[in-house]
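Severity: low
Component: inverse-folding endpoint
Summary: output formatting inconsistent between runs
Steps to reproduce: submit the following structure tokens with default settings.
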């Protein structure tokens, strides 16, 4: 695993959590839909009378997965923050924290630093190189 892959894990887990939260929202919306059809014919014998319970069970399963993913994200962010804090350069620390812990875009980071995006990319490369030994030590433990 490269340094960049190690640091980018937080972004991937965060995206996964967001996707699952969207699924929960869709299930909740589905569960709260109240549609009824007035018809002189009786309802079908094969209809799912446990539909609401099924949706709620799926929501609870997804929410448990989300909680587990959040725990994993918090632990990983703590580990990555420790690696970043061990760097000597305040610029490297700030850039890596903004990018991998706060999920800021390159344009936002460049604006914060008052640098060009190209210069931010150059500093990023230097910061990754400075991190490489520390990340190797951390990933050996995993």
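Observed output (run 2 of 3):
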């Amino acid at each position: 695993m490269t340094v960049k892959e190690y640091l980018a894990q937080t972004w991937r887990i965060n995206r996964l959590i967001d996707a699952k939260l969207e699924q929960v929202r869709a299930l909740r919306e589905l569960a709260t839909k109240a549609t009824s059809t007035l018809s002189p014919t009786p309802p079908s014998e094969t209809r799912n009378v446990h539909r609401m319970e099924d949706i709620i069970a799926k929501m609870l399963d997804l929410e448990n997965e989300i909680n587990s993913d959040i725990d994993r994200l918090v632990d990983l962010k703590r580990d990555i923050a420790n690696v970043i804090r061990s760097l000597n350069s305040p610029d490297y620390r700030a850039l890596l924290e903004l990018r991998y812990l706060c999920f800021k875009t390159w344009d936002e980071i460049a604006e914060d630093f008052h640098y060009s995006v190209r210069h931010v990319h150059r500093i990023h490369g230097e910061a990754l190189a400075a991190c490489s030994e520390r990340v190797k030590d951390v990933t050996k433990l995993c």
